[in-house]
Amino acid sequence: MKFEIYFPSTDGSKEMIVREEGANWFNALENALKGGGMGHLMNNILCDVKEDGSIHVTETVSGKKFLIREIDPNRTAAAAKAPEEAIGRTLRKRDPNEVLAAVFEEVLDGFDKPEQEGLDFFLDLAMKHIPADSGSVAIAPLAARELTFVACRGPKAGGVKGLKLPMGQGIAGFSALNNVLIAVSDVQRDPRFFKDISEKIGYPTKSIVASPIAYNNLTFGMIELINKTESSSFDEDDIHILRFVSDKIGEYLHMSWESRNNNLDDE
Fold it and tell me: Are residues 129 and 61 in the same domain?
């Protein structure tokens, strides 16, 4: 698939429109940003699917914005045009420490729990502070190419637990493989969205946020929330909270992994 990625002018810099290929639009955006030396801007992104199928992207740390449009293969070659409408969201720019104040102490209660109980605890904590209809944690053994859903909440939790997802596939798999926290609103407008699990369990996805679970450059999996309550989209405050919780899960799983390996060495 081929896409156009529009980089608007900022601080007097020249606007750019680049063309990239990718398995999907988030792969194309990643390729474009890395090619321009801006790969770090893929760390925390809000994505809004518009009625025309274009994607408006807002990076929550720098506030930079991008627009992604799929190139119609049947369209005759023509000069790409800058969009007429405003791109992306206006961020509130709240202090992340203020947003996280209520989570700081609570998260520590999960570290003394056995693994399954601990993963359930962290997922419940995320959903307590980010109201959503459903949530799940999927993990993969180190160097594995497949995620397994091990902690699930929501009306279809029983059908999700135990399901497997290839690393890199869909938004959740992309998040885990590329260490990207990504939130997408109005997913149902995007025919390119990976719907396999959603259709398998009969649960429509409207909005989704997924964060990698990693520690010291080791990826253990991902945590995702689906369908934010009373809103069509997750916001930058939600991203701050989920990134914090996912980082703590990574730390927790790393401690668990080290403990298991140390026990094996002692035998």
Answer: no
Strand partners, 16: 7
The tally of CA atoms less than 13 A away on the side-chain side of residue 35 is 13
Q: Is residue 138 part of a domain?
A: yes
Residues 178 and 257 in one domain: yes
pTM score of the predicted model: 0.89
pLDDT averaged per 10 residues, the chain (length 267): 86 80 87 87 91 91 90 62 78 83 93 96 97 95 87 93 90 90 88 68 86 93 94 92 97 88 57
Region of 180 please: left (phi>0), alpha (psi -120 to 50) or beta: beta
- The encoded tokens of residue 130 equal 């980010």
Query: For the residues of 152-175, what is the DSSP string, one character each?
Result: EESTTHHHHTT-EEETTSHHHHHH
The type of residue at 76 is: T
Contact (CB, 8 A) for 153 and 136: yes
Q: Which H/E stretch holds residue 126?
A: helix 115-129
How many C-beta atoms surround the C-beta of residue 75 within 10 A? 7
* CA contacts within 13 A on the Cβ side of 178: 26
Gyration radius of the chain's alpha carbons: 19
CB 56 within 8 A of CB 48: yes
Residue 105: CATH number of its domain:
3.30.450.40
